[in-house]
């Protein structure tokens, strides 16, 4: 990485970039006075570097996004080729790049999903999936989980179930349920099976109490991501499907974070015996090289809009630079067997090593995940499971950065979510840094 890094070192310094950023950029999800964003000058593969030449192994994938790593040459070239040809086109026009991206995406989806509605990212994918479900069923309410994240726009932020939820005008038609999460079971369950059965019972009771005829959709992240990476127990998603069918409710699976290779499957749902009605995606579809998301639509819902107008779409939906990058990303993932790599690294390197770390570091309460999608849950006391507080998490983050690892920290968890191209050596190096940092941690 050194040659590429040199080129950036010749530019501005960290201090100059930080100062310019602080003076003009208003940051998301932040109190503006307390900002200290990490300056990043460039990247390659799983590595990033700052303007002073310090390198970081990226264990965050930039909000769990950059599956194929930084500056993949085939994807960069595809964006450049498309930029030479046509840099923008409105959603109403037909364009071969958009059609090809839709074809590759539906090829990945289960049988009977043949249409893609493109959006600019994950939140508007969720917005539009909810809108489709409401128009299709003629019903209003949506059920989603506490401990979920679905995006930061109108209906998506209301659907979100963790502390980020912001009540707004959509809130009245939204209901939350507890999903399965054995480590902090809301159901006094002591096994995955019990947790699953009770979570499904709870889901059905809430539907009955709310009035099944008022509910359009159950919206679930296939594996909740930002809220804690909790792979569902066997039977939960298929059980939710059965309950949905019993009451004429649609099932939307949100694959924005878990989809496109992250779990070691093309779609996270491939590992479960479940068939949703709508699938939302973004992030991994093109590693976020250009903003892109969408909804993969099952045939009955797509046909519902054959004679009816679907009232949705934004100026940039299905942007040619974005869809060109999606084609190149999916092709590169196939050719380079990146999804298989994610599965192997998860099973052979990350999973076993995290179990070892959990066994030796008292501060670790739980580890869970698959592929390149893992969470380490940190606690002050293993019996009470008291979450490690924000100041302690801040110190751990500083320790990880100091040692050259860029982490994804969410509440009391370190999420181990590197690019899916990561090698066993790189993954081992990052896990060594995490272990060393946890070992140095003093309460
Ligand atoms: N859905 C899920 C499961 C997500 O993880 C996210 C973002 O992290 C979103 C939706 C929102 O995506 P975006 O930030 O692209 O709008």
UniProtKB/TrEMBL annotation:
InterPro entries membership: Aminotrans_3, Aminotrans_3_PPA_site, PyrdxlP-dep_Trfase, PyrdxlP-dep_Trfase_major, PyrdxlP-dep_Trfase_small
Domain of life the protein comes from: Bacteria
Listed Pfam families: Aminotran_3
GO molecular function, one term: transaminase activity
Keyword Cell membrane: no
UniProt keyword terms in alphabetical order: Aminotransferase, Pyridoxal phosphate, Transferase
Coiled coil: none
Claim: Transferase is one of the keywords in the record: yes
NCBIfam families according to UniProt: PRK06062.1
Family assignment from sequence similarity: Belongs to the class-III pyridoxal-phosphate-dependent aminotransferase family.
Full protein name: Aspartate aminotransferase family protein
